Amino acid sequence: MTEEDSTPPITALPARALDTTAERPWPVRLLAAKIADYIARMAPVWVEGQIVQLSRRPGAGMAFLTLRDTDADMSLPVSLYARVLEAVATPLVEGAHVVVHATPTFWTKRGTLQLQADEVRAVGVGELLARIEQLKRVLAAEGLFDAAHKVPLPFLPEVVGLVCGRGSKAEHDVVVNAQARWPHVRFEIREVAVQGVGAVQQVSAAIAELDADPRVEVIVVARGGGAVEDLLPFSNEALVRAAAACRTPLVSAIGHETDTPLLDLVADYRASTPTDAAERIVPDVTEERARLVQARARIRAAVDHLLSREQAGLDAARSRPVLASPESTVAAREADMHQRQEAGRRALDARLARATGETQQLAVQLRALSPAATLDRGYAVVQRPDGAVVRDPMDVETGDALRVRVARGELGAMVTAIHRPGRQY
Question: How far apart, in whole angstroms, are the C-alpha atoms of residue 376 and residue 202?
Fold first, then answer.
């Protein structure tokens, strides 16, 4: 038995992949046949993508292209007849955005999958702009364009991150103009594809890399204008979201006035051109020096004016009598004090004289009303031993001892007889 005879026939092999074992494996030809059979049952499909490679083989009447996803690093090979390619109204070139109607096929000999296209349609600019407008509404609803998310640019960054094309004029405009305004500014430059297939991925990666660098204080994405198709990467959702996630202040300098890429809306500052971006990210040293001179002059003038005003106020205060001749105020107060003292003395003397007169008058009245004055006139006060004044003969009895007060002293007496008016005892 030969080696070929020892190979088991396909009918003897497991019918399902789940039933295969190390002892009973499928040969490659069987697996390839089953994959081809499975893919052959797939229905034709419309696929959208971007042409990254396009080759024509006139002798074979065939054309081949690679269709790449516009947002992810994925691609599929596509084959089509030359007549299908010639039927496209707009000539196709690499980088064109197309929709392909194709049937998936699996080549068993090479083990490769490719699409067999029978119709190709170029996606027009109007349709692309409509899709961008729809994406714009979606992102705006999420708040990616809100002013509250934008941060101010630093006044004087030491290091500026620059994302631009390789050897582009945009790079020259940003670097030269910025260093002309502020010679000490330094750049971290990332040269990437700014149009075509790899633009989205490379620009997004460059933004993320510069954002992660702690030295970079502001990032500029510069391109310098171009056709609408060339600027499509800057309206790509993946790139816009990468810019929105950037924590470092971001300046968009795409340089397209007619149509605004979505990157302009999510950026912290939109520059009309790369030169405008350079003028925005760093100040002009000449202007700043002039402003410094002006500020110092204004400060000096303000200080001089303040000193002059305060000196004038001080001179006015010193010219007042209270400071020019302080003793005059004291003398005036002294004279006023003497006047008040004399007035007080006179008022006191008058008051004392008046009071003396009043006292003397009261004394005269008191003497006139005093019992002592009455006694001086020869009268006497008769009192019983208990001190009671005798006013009526009925107040005493014969033999009672009495005290008789006269002007110069007292006399002792005894009642020997009582005489009442109209009666005698």
Answer: 143
Task: Provide the mean pLDDT of the chain.
Answer: 85
What is the distance between the alpha carbons of residues 403 and 385, in angstroms, rounded to a whole number? 7
Between residues 260 and 210, which one has the greater pLDDT?
210
Give the integer Cα–Cα distance in Å for 222 and 251: 8
* 225-239: average pLDDT: 81
Residues 160, 249 contacting (CB under 8 angstroms): no
Q: Is the pTM of this model over 0.85?
A: no
The residue type at 392:
D
Average of per-residue pLDDT across 139-147: 91
| d(C-alpha 90, C-alpha 51), whole Å | 14
Give the C-alpha separation, 261 to 195, whole Å: 13
Whole-angstrom Cα distance, residue 32 to residue 332? 127
**Reduced 3-state DSSP string for the chain:** CCHHHHCCCHHHCCCCHHHCCCCCCCCHHHHHHHHHHHHHCCCCEEEEEEEEEEEEECCCCEEEEEEECCCCCCEEEEEEEHHHHHCCCCCCCCCCEEEEEEEEEEECCCCEEEEEEEEEEECCHHHHHHHHHHHHHHHHHHCCCCHHHCCCCCCCCCEEEEEECCCCHHHHHHHHHHHHHCCCCEEEEEECCCCCCCHHHHHHHHHHHHHHCCCCCEEEEECCCCCCCCCHHHHCHHHHHHHHCCCCCEEEECCCCCCCCHHHHHCCEECCCHHHHHHHHCCCHHHHHHHHHHHHHHHHHHHHHHHHHHHHHHHHHHHCHHHHCHHHHHHHHHHHHHHHHHHHHHHHHHHHHHHHHHHHHHHHHHHHHCHHHHHHCCCCEEECCCCCECCCHHHCCCCCEEEEEECCEEEEEECCCCCECCECC
Model pLDDT, residue 61 = 82
Q: Report yes or no: 120 and 85 within 8 Å, Cβ to Cβ.
A: yes
CB neighbours of residue 104 within 10 Å: 18
Domains in the chain: ranges and CATH: 3-127 (2.40.50.140), 143-283 (3.40.50.261), 374-414 (no CATH)
